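Colleagues,

Please find the record for the two-part complex below.
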Amino acid sequence: MTPAIELRGVTKRFLTPSGGVYTALHDLNMSVEPGEFCSVVGPTGCGKSTTLALISGLEPASEGEVDVFGKPVAGIADGIGYVFQSDAVFPWKTVLGNVAAGPRYHGASNRDASERARDWIARVGLAGFEDRYPYQLSGGMRKRVALAQSLINSPRILLMDEPFSALDVQTRTLMENELLSLWSASSASVVFVTHDLEEAISLSDRVFVITAGPGTVKSTYKVDLPRPRNVAEIRFEPRFVAIYEEIWKELRDEVLVSYERQKRGAA
Amino acid sequence: MSVRSAARLNRVSAPTQPADRSGSDLAAARQKQAGRRRLNVLGGRVLVAVVVLGGWELGSRIGVIDKFFWSQPSEIASTLWRWFTEGTDLGPLWEQVLVTMEETVGGFLVGSVLGVIFGVVLGRNRLLADVLGPYIKGANAIPRVVVGALFAVSLGLDIRAKIATAAVLVFFVVFFNAFQGVREVDRNLIANARILGADNRRLTTEIIIPSALSWIAASLHTSFGLALVGAVVGELFGATEGIGELIYLSKNLFDTAGVFAGMALLAATALVAEALITALEDRLIRWRPPVATEVRI
């Protein structure tokens, strides 16, 4: 079976403003099956977000190949959803306008787009808020808008870049559960970037640990916890704790390397 | 400061009420306070007018202020009354006001539309911006009212010369704001729109222009004032009607009361226009959160 996403020997270099070359990713190999929920964890600045930019086609790889459903990525392709870390909903559009944007960009009539948007707004629990502007919503509600905005395009691949990192812990757990139920109703593959190992394990089928930059996959772990899961409670299961310990041993070294580097950089 | 923003400020700075008050009491108390505040502002405004105009009148009557050069409020008022009832030397007063308004609004529209178009196109096209940059900066450095002289010669005495002068003044302000606004668009929003499937045209109309609008809207107040300047300067360079021409005529007759009366008319016109622009601005950037500390003047 063709994997949904495959990165082979991918290297990504950026030019720094001072004219130097910064290597964000080095010889990265990763493959995600259709319908699989994968998390990518790693220390700050290891190139996690860059990985998503490469898969989405927002950035080209410097070396290596990036395939999505067996086809090399060349620019932004259809069938990809992307939930950004910061707020990327359009502040001048209402909730309805934001969610309806995707279908409209794909040529749906305004009426059709609004109808579908209303359905998705209800699905993420925002019915009644259609006419609000983003500034009138809480952080959690804005994330729901962002989710609906991405999912309405029925993406085959959903990329999420620390989407819940700005939320408080309770809202975050709620959103994680909702994400799982929305995902299970779709057949999308998810690549979920986070620095929170707990979040990664409780959501995913597989967890990739990335080394301190330049990033490459250090190890991969299968999370064999049963679904459906309740994110709020799964953390207490012995199997969860065991997996956590195993992955943390790997991750800790990378976090320490990154921390030492930052300290030296700051000194 | 507008009455509305006064109320807004008031809402924020209201002292904390005792905890046992019910919600409706609280609201009523606030409303009362806001009403009192409005009254204070109005009273203060009247007081300023009385002190300034009264002092001026008194000064010119006892001879501290030379009436010939600086006129006096009563004379200005009677000139205004005469223009209003008997008409001006150029014809009915409302015609003069209308002509100047037409020139101002015309120049404002032409200048801001061109400014937005150029700002967005250059903001989106780096090469074009680099090529044209020095020319635009150079043109902006010229005291632009002098182009009024050029237009008076090339376009003659009619309304087009004034519209052109006003448009030139407006263009640069709007252009620089639009250009900056386009450059400052959040990269994340652009990435998001592209992922959602927006093509270049949608990106421009749905992301870049709305995002730049808050910059552009901020420039509209300044640019409307400049449009009025352009229209009046255009009239000074040669016209047959309009408030500027009225002022020019009064000046030639050493009628300082007439000059002041013309200024008063301009001020009144500008105030009315200002209210319209504020309404337009609120409509354009409805999506922005109201700012509690905002003070409008």
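Confidence is low (pLDDT under 50) at residues 1-17 of chain B.

Comments are welcome before we finalize the supplementary table.
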